[in-house]
Fold this protein.
Amino acid sequence: MKKNLKKISFIALPILLGVFLIWYSLSQLSSSDIASIKTSFKTANYWWVGLSLFLGILSHISRAYRWQFLLEPLGYKPKLANSVMTVLIAYLLNLFIPRSGEFARAASIKKYEKIPFEKAFGTIVAERVADVIMLFSIIGLAFFIQTDLISGYIFKDGGEKSGLYSKIALFIIMPVLGYLTYRYLKKSSHPFIHKVIEFINGLIDGVKSIFTMKKKWKFLFHTVFIWVMYVLMFYVVTFALPETTNLPFAAIIVGFVVGGLSMALTNGGLGTYPVFVASALILYHVEDNPARAFGWIMWTAQTLMVIIFGSLSFLLLPIYNKYRK
């Protein structure tokens, strides 16, 4: 009974949180605010949104192709079409049940390419390690770019020195403290800390395995390519609205990071993505309503892309393999 309750809560709570945030954010808007956001939707240049979706599809194809480099050393070479469709199905299922997509992806490739589930799932975990490192790198870049803004809150009227001190603290002192903390926590016997250390060790082992694989440079190229496409997906949509056309590079990176982190709170960023991204853009003097419109346009386009292509893949995957045989 308790296990079933936990499963239901795991699925339902993020969705309920997202629905609540949508309701709450809309309830805070006046009728004129809603009208302004609707106007932004109507006047947006959707050619840029279309380009963003094209870049997104390129990233998914690249992700499927990158997967081949992890499966090949195990003796498997699945059809690229099967890899692409299973990746898209994984994204679709993750919208409804967090992390279910990874299991479905491994199960689908097992069914159509006869790859053992545990081996396929192991390669997906290795992929996630590379993606986590890329995400952390972009977060670090965002902090580096924004140290002056952050230091403005910490060191009042600190001027240029405060920004310099912040960069020193971020890239010299913090890594040293992090390493010393890691060394200290390794000696702890607390179950939660033990799990954290296991996670960190898993990341380290994953990095080592990437650099020892046969086609590591191709794998690394596609890893960087995937995340460049992610950032460009965000960037090109800024040209869809006149109020966001001239955003600085810092705003692009910070908005992208904030939007990405919001997706960890609810399924596919439901309710959180538009609010978080709008909050980031407002820091860069974008007016409230265009910032909200940008967040909603970006989230809606991405979500529809996943639903449409994921659903098509779900339907076409068995048909493709039936005729392939």
